[in-house]
Amino acid sequence: MTASATQGHALQLVQKAHADGTKETEAEVVGRSLADSAVSAGLMAMAYSAHIGGGSSVNANIAEVRRITAAVKDGDLSDLEGMLVGQAVALQTMAANFAHRAQIQDKQRNLEAFYSLALKTQAQSRATIQALVELKFPRQVVFSKNANINNGQQQINNGVPSQAEQTESTQNKILESSNGQWLDTGAPGTAIPTHPHLATVGQGHRADKPRRKSKGVA
Predict the structure, then answer these.
(1) N or C, fewer C-beta in 10 Å, the chain?
(2) Inter-residue contact 9 to 57 (CB < 8 Å)
(3) Beta strand 147-148 with 2-6: parallel, antiparallel or unpaired?
């Protein structure tokens, strides 16, 4: 199926069949192709490839994007690494060009505009290099066995006693006697001596004064 032409090269869309054997309609083919990342990238490349010449083909661009996609799925990132290197070099070249053009300006407004563009493209080049480094040398995530996983914040204790350990240590010190021996909670307690002045009053210690009889109710 042939779609609209781009720079003399017609975009060829493949018509597929449904599960029941019926073929896709033209609207279904176009709708599926719009969601195809390779088709979108191929059309975008054709739109911005006028500086290369008229020998490029949108179908060749789509085929190349699909080749790179298949290589990435297989674990080959060499094409992506080459893209990032090219982008970093191109952005750095743009930054140098903007900085040079800023020096020859005689108006403050133009000077600030070119310096701003130079700094922005330089920052983008640095970000591209950082992306290349992370792609080439991915970071490794370290999982600590000392991590306290809870519903709230997570804390990793590296040699620092937790609050529960400190509380337990404090309780153990309370149960320890002054001479370093542990208190025996199951040993029988020592009897407390009674005070002689608080002894039970016996029969001989009672007063000789007779008790007063209460008056009964007549």
Answers:
(1) C
(2) yes
(3) unpaired
What DSSP character marks residue 159? Answer: S
Q: Give the span between the Cα atoms of 2 and 11, in whole angstroms.
A: 6
Contact indicator for 122, 91 with CB cutoff of 8 Å: yes
**How far, in Å, CA of 125 to CA of 90, rounded?**
8
DSSP for residue 199: S
Q: Which two tokens stand for residue 69?
A: 């996609």
Q: CA 4 to CA 11: how far, in whole Å?
A: 6
Q: How many of the other CB atoms lie within 10 Å of CB of 24?
A: 17
2: enclosing H helix or E strand = strand 2-6
β-bridge partners, 6: 9
Amino acid identity at 87 = Q
- What pLDDT, in 10s, does the model give residues 102-161? 999 999 999 999 999 999 999 999 999 999 999 989 887 776 666 555 555 555 555 555
In the chain, DSSP finds a helix count (H) and a strand count (E) of 6, 4
Quote the tokens at residue 68: 């790179």
pTM listed for this prediction: 0.54
